[in-house]
Design goal:
The structure is a single chain. The protein contains 6 helices and 5 strands. By secondary structure, it is α/β, with parallel strands linked by helices. The chain has a single domain, classed as HUPs (Rossmann fold, 3-Layer(aba) Sandwich). Strands 3-2-1-4-5 form a 5-stranded parallel beta sheet, sandwiched between helices. The longest helix has 17 residues. It starts with a strand and ends in a 9-residue tail after the last helix.
C-alpha cells in the first residue's frame, strides 16, 4: 500500500522552513502533494500561480513531490486526491495548539482524516512568511530564510507596489 499525503498551505511565499518540511515529508510518504490553498479570509501577496511556480522551482529534484492548488474545504480536496493524510509542519508550541485544533476539526468533518506533524528544523523554527514579507518591504535581506529566486520576487513585488524601502548602506 502506498502512502500519499497532502501538505497544504498558503506558501506566500515559500520559505526554507516550508522546503525543509517538504524534503522531510518526501522521505516519509510515497507521494507528497504540496497544495497551495486559497483562503478567502487572507489577501495573498503572490497569485496562486506564482506561489505554485516558486514551489515547483525548488522541488524539481524530489521525484515523489507534486504541486497543486485547491479551493474550498481541505477534507473535500483530500477525497479528490484519494488520500486521508495531511502533513503539517510545527515550529513552536503555539503552532502545535493551532494545528491541533485544525487536526481535530478536520477529523470531526471526516473521521478518516489523519494529520501527521513534522517538527521544523531548529534553524527555521522562528520563520513565517509574514515576518519575511515585512522585512523585505523595509529593505531587509532575507537570503538566509528563502531561496534567492524567492527573495528576488519579493523585492520585485514590493518595488512594483512602491512600498519597498531600500536600506541606506
Amino acid at each position: 500500500m502506498t502512502k500519499k499525503a497532502i501538505y497544504p498551505g498558503a506558501f506566500d511565499p515559500v520559505t526554507n522552513g516550508h522546503l525543509d518540511v517538504i524534503k522531510r515529508g518526501s522521505l516519509i510518504f510515497d507521494t507528497l502533494v504540496v497544495s497551495v490553498g486559497c483562503n478567502p479570509l487572507k489577501a495573498a501577496l503572490f497569485s496562486m500561480e506564482e506561489r505554485m511556480e516558486m514551489i515547483r522551482e525548488h522541488v524539481q529534484g524530489l521525484k515523489n513531490v507534486t504541486v497543486d492548488s485547491f479551493e474550498g474545504m481541505l477534507v473535500d480536496y483530500l477525497k479528490k486526491q484519494q488520500t486521508n493524510i495531511i502533513l503539517r509542519g510545527i515550529r513552536t508550541v503555539s503552532d502545535f495548539e493551532y494545528e491541533f485544533q485544525r487536526a481535530l476539526t478536520n477529523r470531526v468533518l471526516d473521521k478518516e482524516v489523519e494529520t501527521v506533524f513534522v517538527m521544523t528544523s531548529e534553524q527555521y523554527s522562528f520563520l513565517n512568511s509574514t515576518l519575511i514579507k515585512e522585512a523585505v518591504s523595509l529593505g531587509g535581506r532575507v537570503s538566509q530564510f528563502v531561496p534567492p529566486g524567492v527573495e528576488r520576487r519579493l523585492v520585485g513585488k514590493f518595488k512594483h507596489m512602491h512600498i519597498y524601502k531600500k536600506k541606506i548602506e
